[in-house]
Amino acid sequence: MSCPMEEKDAVSRPISTILDGSNYPLWSQQIKSFLIGHKLWRIVTGDIVKPKQSEKEPDNKYFDRVEE
User: Fold this and answer.
1) Whole-number pLDDT of residue 2
2) Of 43, 46, 44, 45, whose CA–CA distance to 68 is shortest?
3) Distance CA 56, CA 40 (A)
4) CA distance 35 to 54
5) Is the C-alpha dihedral spanning 51, 56, 62, 65 positive or negative?
6) What is the C-alpha to C-alpha distance for residues 63 and 68, in angstroms, rounded to an integer?
7) How far is the C-alpha of 61 from the C-alpha of 39, rounded, in Å?
8) Other CB atoms within 10 Å distance of the CB of residue 30
9) What share of the chain is helix, strand, coil (3-state, %, to 5)?
10) InterPro entries recorded for this chain (predicted)?
11) Where are the domains of the chain?
């Protein structure tokens, strides 16, 4: 079992594995961890949809909502 600090470090590291077909299991594990760490996995799976910006909503308010 890894410690929380190791998990945080793993999230901040870029994906170093280049998908070439033969390494799909390793690549998919790394990309999934990256997406989960950046709170994007649920968007990828379709569990949540990216919010849409209304015409009158200022950019900074919209960006704050997207980050949430």
Assistant:
1) 47
2) 43
3) 26
4) 26
5) negative
6) 9
7) 18
8) 18
9) 55, 0, 45
10) DUF4219 (IPR025314)
11) 4-67
What's the rounded Cα separation, in Å, for the pair 8 and 3? 9
Q: What is the DSSP track for 2-13?
A: --HHHHHHHHHS
Query: For residues 26 and 18, is the Cβ–Cβ distance under 8 A?
Result: no
36: amino acid identity, one letter: I
The two tokens of residue 36 are 């989960």
Q: Enter the tokens of residue 21.
A: 């077909």
Cα distances (Å, whole numbers) of residue 41 to 10, 20, 31, 48, 54: 16, 22, 10, 9, 24
State the Cα–Cα distance between residues 5 and 24, nearest whole angstrom. 26
**pLDDT of 40-66, one tens digit each?**
899 899 998 878 899 999 999 988 887
